[in-house]
Amino acid sequence: MAILIIAEHDNRTLKTATRNAVTAATQMGDELHLLVAGSNCKAVAVAASEIAGINRVLLSDDLAYEHQLAENMGKLVAEIGKDYSHIVVPATTSGKNFLPRVAALLDVAQISDITAVESENTFQRPIYAGNAIATVESLDAIKVISVRSTAFEPAGNGPSSEISELNISCDCKLSAFVEEVVAESDRPELTSAEIIISGGRGMGNGENFTLLEQVADKLGAAVGASRAAVDAGFVPNDMQVGQTGKIVAPELYIAVGISGAIQHLAGMKDSKVIVAINKDEEAPIFSVADYGLVADLFDVMPELQKQL
Amino acid sequence: MKILVSVKRVIDYNVKVRVKSDNTDVDLANVKMALNPFCEIAVEEAVRLKEAGTASEVVVVSIGPKPCQEQIRTALALGADRGIQVETEEMPESLNVAKLLAKVIEEEQPGLVIMGKQAIDSDNNQTGQMLAALTDMPQGTFASEVKIDGDKVNVTREVDGGLQTVELNMPAIVTTDLRLNEPRYASLPNIMKAKRKPLDVKTPAELGVELKAHTKLLKVTPPAERQAGIKVASVDELVEKLKNEAKVL
Ligand SMILES: Cc1cc2nc3c(=O)[nH]c(=O)nc-3n(C[C@H](O)[C@H](O)[C@H](O)COP(=O)(O)OP(=O)(O)OC[C@H]3O[C@@H](n4cnc5c(N)ncnc54)[C@H](O)[C@@H]3O)c2cc1C
Ligand SMILES: Nc1ncnc2c1ncn2[C@@H]1O[C@H](COP(=O)(O)O)[C@@H](O)[C@H]1O
Fold first, then answer.
1. Cβ–Cβ of A97/B223 closer than 8 Å?
2. Is A243 annotated as a binding residue?
């Protein structure tokens, strides 16, 4: 049986996280189908059809899927997915929102946030904020899986596959989209950036984040934050890195004024190189940092900007 | 309107868990346990809705072995009115939890169900969504704001791109995110009062749910350790190392 992957997109562009999920799926089986459900999203289906390893793209273009409402997406994916051996999504907030509904409708478990595929039915996933790795075997006929993007390389492009249009409209009429407040930024997305510079409570206030932004602009980096910085209102919620925020693993992660609580480390400790700048030499962040600088960030950041 | 809140007993968030030496699971012997932080936020939200006159009763339910009654008592001390424990031998997997909760919903008929977005032990982030599908209810996950307006509830959700607001028909299921509220501390008199609040114990058999295993835990291992790094003395040295040693600049 084939594997169904669900594309992450905004009706215009295909999100990279889809490609990481495809790579994970290639380790589970050979026949891969990719579902693009949205509204006016033909361009996404075309982009999806070019991903290497995909045998077929299924396009479900209907107003009911415009905002990926969980009720409608859950029903659609369960309906299509019942004929597949695996249903695979990237573990983004959208995937996390609708996928458990799919699992419940199919009466199977969901295995969340996998970081390795051991066989077609056995997977690894972090638990307890990444302080333990569980190896879990699925006993279900259909395996419903969300994929942690940082654990799999994004799939590249290959020969294009065929696009089949489906006519399944699942409008549950249980919920309605009201509005979206999207943080606009010219910087790279946190989850796909090569370099990230994150600020914590030590930043003191929101304005001081410009110290990080100036360095980020020089490095082409994304800017992240700890929960404390978000809770204090310094920066918006979508910048939170950690166990319950975004999971990142860039080439370089610079933590500024962040103490390094386990919940923060859970979201960034797989970064290739970690730099910590903190005035407290006992801060736990230094235990994961390749390069630690014990200093006041307000002295360090202007200096760093000058030197880059 | 009645609000049902479902709470899980988990390891205290300040504790760094260790893996057992035989790699069968994590070691929870003598470890401090607590109410899952997201569930605490769920209780707080329900209690605030009651204080505002929107809700008439807050019922809290927890599934698991006997000690999870402690977390039900904590929720009662925070202001919930009555508790239900569904007693199981072990902590059941999410789909089974959702099936048991669906039966409790059938009996209790709440207008709103509030849960945590994630249990900090399993890190599953799925039970609320599963429950919503089983009960055919709409869901507002990762909520940072909940506004009830007649028979609809508007939920603002923390999503990857920012904030999204959806309108749900009630009854609905809401799962909490960190910014929804700041939970209060239970006062000593309220902790005492909580001991006298009703707490019902039910079994899966009474609810007519058969617990089926859908997954098998093969092993639990510690994560790869990071090599300890070095301290640099200045910004000059840092930039030099990043350029020439780590080669990331
Ligand atoms: C359920 C739950 C989920 C959570 N999820 C997350 C999550 O996803 N992500 C997350 O980050 N946290 C999360 N947390 C919170 C986590 O436990 C910590 O509270 C948080 O990470 C602390 O943020 P911080 O390091 O910015 O603040 P603090 O711990 O207050 O640290 C501030 C640091 O800044 C340093 N500092 C201050 N001033 C300066 C200066 N001038 N120069 C240099 N250094 C300075 C201090 O020495 C200190 O080390 C979660 C907590 C819970 C309970
Ligand atoms: N054993 C349980 N008893 C009661 N509620 C639970 C239980 N397990 C999970 N939940 C609820 O489901 C939420 C999400 O848990 P999870 O899907 O396991 O991450 C928790 O915050 C609780 O509200």
1. no
2. yes
- Which residues, at least 6 apart from B102, have a Cβ–Cβ distance to it below 8 Å? B131, B134, B135
Rounded to an integer, what distance in angstroms lies between the CA atom of residue B88 and that of residue B74? 20
Q: Residues B97-135: pLDDT tens digits? A: 999 999 999 999 999 999 999 999 999 999 999 999 999
- Mean pLDDT, range B181-189, rounded to an integer: 97
Note the Cα B220 to chain centre separation in Å.
Answer: 22
- Residues contacting ligand 1 via CB (< 6 Å): A 200-202, 226-229, 240-245, 257-259, 261, 263-264, 267, 278-280, 283, 296-298; B 13, 37, 120
Domain extents for chain B? 2-217
The question of ipTM being above 0.90 is answered as yes
Query: Quick one: closest CA in B to A180, which residue?
Result: B164
pTM check: above 0.80:
yes
Q: Does domain B2-217 have CATH number 3.40.1490.10?
A: no
**How many A/B residue pairs have CB atoms within 8 Å?**
262
Query: How far is B83 from B7, CA to CA, in rounded Å?
Result: 10
Domains recognised in chain A with CATH numbers: 3-165 (3.40.50.620), 190-307 (3.40.50.1220)
Contacts of B112 in chain A (CB under 8 A): none
